[in-house]
Amino acid sequence: MTAIFCEGDKVYLRTVQMEDVPLIVKWKGDPLVWRMAVGREAEVTLANQEDDVRGAIDSEKELYFIIAVKETDQAIGYVRINLDRPDEALCVAAVCFGGTEGERTRKGCSESAFGTLVRGGSAPH
What we know:
By secondary structure, the protein is an alpha+beta fold. It has five helices and five strands.
């Protein structure tokens, strides 16, 4: 069963799962995402993303959510919050992209995902 963290009008945020790793690798392989969310020096591989996701799942100071469209359950991106950096400001990375339904599906999802996270969405049924 998928653990839904919160849901909004268009999307819901669910906890990342190991099954998401191949999709995350695909997303992070996109040149634009790689530059913005990963960093120019980082290498993205299936192995290091498996370690990364496993670490996030096991961490009490990191939140890693998959953004999914409510109507289709299609994963379209992620929101990640790392609370384990006391010497830095709260580190938030969000990416809203991917999927096969095109721009029409993703349009407005980034705003919806952030709004859902900030407001806490509504409690899942």
